[in-house]
Amino acid sequence: MENIELIQKLSNAFGVSGDEREIAEILREEIKGDVEKIKFDAMGNLIAMKGLDKSGFKVMLNAHMDEVGLIVTFIDEKGFLSFKKVGGIDDRVLLGKRVIVGESKIKGVIGAKAIHLQKKKDEVEKTVESDTMTIDIGAKNKEEAEKFAPLGSLVAFDTKFEKLNEKYYIGKAFDDRLGCSIVANLLKYNFNFPIIALFSTQEEIGLRGVITGAYQYTPDMSITVEGTISADIPEVKEHLKCSKIGQGPVITIKDRTLITDHKLREKLIYTAKRQNIPYQFKQVIAGGTDSSKIQLTKSGVRVLTVAVPVRYIHSPVSLFYQDDYENTLKLLYEFLNSLKEEYYGTVN
């Protein structure tokens, strides 16, 4: 239950790319008693370290703090806010959604011309584009809107975390608040090597924060922990179902930005089999994670990417299954606990 409570805090918090401060503070408070050193860098990355007195190889655990959202780009005379997307969001999931705007967390709703007023056939049948939508915060005019939601204000979806039924939970930003929670939980344990936890910023707009974080504290190997696409829904063909809810942690062999380390991946699979932990492979070569930037740091880093399957990522509401989360945490703990020098060392 403690894990669910942390996920709830992280999911409900505001953390659109470029303003991850609220997420960082929750995580800092969560891990402060479990690590020896906590730092923030110029990009806003939260970097925590433990076991620094131990010799041998250094392991990085990485998860990104930011979520997709919107940014206010224009305010008209009547106080309606125009916006652009921050990160990859399908226009079709925006219309009619409740949002939170800016540091004051003003409530708003995304609107467009009502269907009753749409007369042309192409208006009714085509997807409403985000450029034609506005956010209504109930302002009387431009001046009032500017007080509460000035240009550049970031906008998050107004979605509350809740239990759907049994072990299914819904909320926003499970990509990658689930990964943040898992890394925070792993920091409670002691391993036989130094650990660097990199909670990175601005992943959703180009894997930006991780570049500076990994450069400062370059490890020998790294594991990026994510929430990834679960496309096990009726209209998706079987071979395109990237991962499936209930089938355990998702192990990446390749995505569009990297190929993970073969030796480490074999060790991870061996660990899963030995511990009877269910696992699956990411079946679609799509997307990218912070691992791709960590891998190319300085002279190179061995990397893995492991994820919790999540339905409806990058939308106002996502869904995950508790057993998938717990099995991902267990797999990574067992993997780290079994690591020996030969699994990170020099390429022969």
Write the SSE topology.
Elements: H1 2-12, H2 21-31, E1 37-40, E2 46-50, E3 59-64, E4 69-75, E5 81-86, E6 98-101, E7 106-111, H3 121-125, E8 134-136, H4 142-148, E9 154-157, E10 162-165, E11 168-171, H5 174-186, E12 195-200, H6 209-216, E13 221-229, E14 250-251, H7 262-274, E15 280-281, H8 291-295, E16 302-310, E17 318-321, H9 322-338
Parallel strand pairs: 3-12, 3-13, 13-16, 14-15
Antiparallel strand pairs: 1-2, 2-12, 4-5, 4-9, 6-7, 6-9, 7-8, 10-11, 11-17, 14-16
Helix pairs in contact: 1-5, 5-9, 7-9
Features:
2 domains; 348 residues; 26% helix; Elongation Factor Tu (Ef-tu), domain 3; 6-stranded antiparallel sheet; alpha+beta; 8-stranded mixed sheet; globular; single chain; Aminopeptidase
Nutshell version of this structure?
With 348 residues, the chain is α+β, with helices and mostly antiparallel strands. It has helices at 2-12, 21-31, 121-125, 142-148, 174-186, 209-216, 262-274, 291-295, 322-338, and strands at 37-40, 46-50, 59-64, 69-75, 81-86, 98-101, 106-111, 134-136, 154-157, 162-165, 168-171, 195-200, 221-229, 250-251, 280-281, 302-310, 318-321. The chain is built from nine helices and 17 strands.
